[in-house]
From TrEMBL:
Pfam families: zf-C2H2. The lineage of its organism: Eukaryota, Metazoa, Chordata, Craniata, Vertebrata. This is C2H2-type domain-containing protein. It is found in: Nucleus. One of its GO terms (biological process) is negative regulation of transcription by RNA polymerase II. The keyword Metal-binding applies.
Amino acid sequence: MHTAVREHMCFECKKTFTTAKNLKRHQRVHTGEKPYKCSHCDKRFSLSGNLKTHERIHTGEKPYACDQCGKSFTLKENLRDHMRVHTGEKPFTCGHCGKSFSQSSNLKEHMKIHTTEKRHTCNQCGKMFLRASELKYHLRVHTKEKPHSCQLCGKSFSHLHTLKVHQKVHTGVRDYMCFECEKTFISASRLKQHQRIHTGEKPYKCSHCDKRFSRLETLKTHEMIHTGEKPYACDQCGKHFRRKGEVASHMRVHTGEKPFTCDRCGKVFSHSSNLRDHMRIHTREKRKPCDQCNKTFLRVSDLKSHMRVHTKEKPHSCHLCGKSFSHVESLKIHQKIHAGVREHMCFECEKTFISASNLKQHQMIHTGEKPYHCTECGKCFSQSSSLHTHAKNIHSK
């Protein structure tokens, strides 16, 4: 076996190389020399290989194709990473908890769960950051300066990078792909936020109850439960809301606007969620049957929840009245009866309910949905209890 002689040394950092050519190329790190210029946008590079890769952005060339699905990539490394989608390989393992990932970048993000140290503090608001670059970026929030404007819609931004990301909304470009599920995004920050689904990272912790969140916006909204803050007010009736979007939805109560139309029957709704529920009238397909009672469900999660009806297990008890429940969610809803909390509001009529399921059942009044149908005569009902009463009184005689 031959020994590679490394006789060419960089006097800046003492690193050695086998050829003068490799040394010369390395020295550009110190000199800042970038002799290779892109003929399309004048961007410069220290290595010819980097220039060739960059120019593919302009030419659209993607020479590396996946032999499994035909998807093409600009870089050979991207193809290699993509192949793990097909092989299921996850070579990067967390040394703390053993969770595995297909990409090293996802492991790095996940590791923040185990190392929550934050060193850089904003002297304006006290907010802390892991990196100095993040603090520098954040400080522009306080200056309010937005010098970068979109020439298509006039929207202004504090950072040039944010403007470039915004412009992709107009062009439809989505450059950033998640190698776990292949979903694409218009910016690296949105991809990073999405990847927390796969990494399990929840870097934002509530100071009141220690609950953690993957998004800062979700944490801020959650903390309003503890503070009672509802910063968004309706200028028509003075009602307050935690989210800006809730005000916009609420305003339709006053305007009567119903922008969501069913393309089957023409019925209109003020909210997209009500339209989705209504559509079940037209599409009654139910794919997941229970092997105990043959009841069918639209979602696997609904079937899984239903199966506990047959086991009779009720491990969750109310410490105030002793009532037991199969699911912890049901217990939490029940406890709101004692507390008097009614946080689920119908945006059609503003009636409030203690649970999302009670609200959903109520909304069938507005949507006209009747998902429970009698197998004997075909009559439909909005509530399962009404169907049972009908079957007992009409068909059991």
